[in-house]
Amino acid sequence: DPLRGGLFENLMINELVKDTRANKAIPSLNPSLNKRLEMIPINSTIKNLVNEHKLAAKNKGIEIVFTRTLRETDSINGELTAFYQIMENLISNGIKYSSPGTCIEIACVLVEDEIIISVKDQGQGLSDEDKKHIFGKGVRLSARPTGGEQSTELGLYSVKKLLQQMNGKISAQSDGKDQGSTFSVSFKKVQ
Q1: 129 or 174, which is more confident?
Q2: pLDDT, mean over the chain
Q3: Helices (H), 97-190
Q4: pLDDT of amino acid 10
Q5: Contact 119, 183 (CB under 8 A)
Q6: Are 43 and 68 in contact (CB under 8 A)?
Q7: How many angstroms separate the Cα of 135 from the Cα of each of 14, 33, 47, 139, 140?
Q8: How confident is the model over 92-120, as pLDDT tens digits?
Q9: How many other CB atoms are found less than 10 A from the CB of residue 88?
Q10: 111 φ, ψ to 5°?
Q11: Alpha-carbon distances, residue 13 vs 139, 172, 189 (angstroms)
Q12: Terminal-residue alpha carbon distance, the chain
């Protein structure tokens, strides 16, 4: 399946970033794709995403640890490209805003009938002001990329919009500046 290949996915994400920067466009599910929702196996999909980000993390001296307690068959119903965009943003943000020598923990758990995927970093954290506006359109938060990476200022806003279209939710937690952040997304598990 070409969508699960790293090269295709990276090209698609790069085009999305270019379009977003140029037009300040917000991605949305393509109506024709929305009719082709599919079961997305969480463990294998997140494992693929982790593998795609290991080199970027390694180049910054950051370790990615993936913990899963889900069964291999635990899935959500969604649009794969949108799910990739959501998770790619959260993982790449963890790398972008973390310093060398830190760790990013990605966990997938089942709580009742919801699958929760969390991305926890040891980066710059969120100020009280950041927490008020974190999912706003065009909002510049206090954290800055640690390796000269670019920021569109639309990533978390786009993530929230895509999640809403997929009936998912997002939350952000941080104990404050320089205390790291945890972003968690949740979806209904396919029964």
Answers
A1: 174
A2: 81
A3: 128-133, 155-165
A4: 46
A5: yes
A6: yes
A7: 21, 25, 26, 8, 10
A8: 999 998 999 999 999 999 999 999 999 99
A9: 20
A10: -125, 110
A11: 21, 23, 26
A12: 24
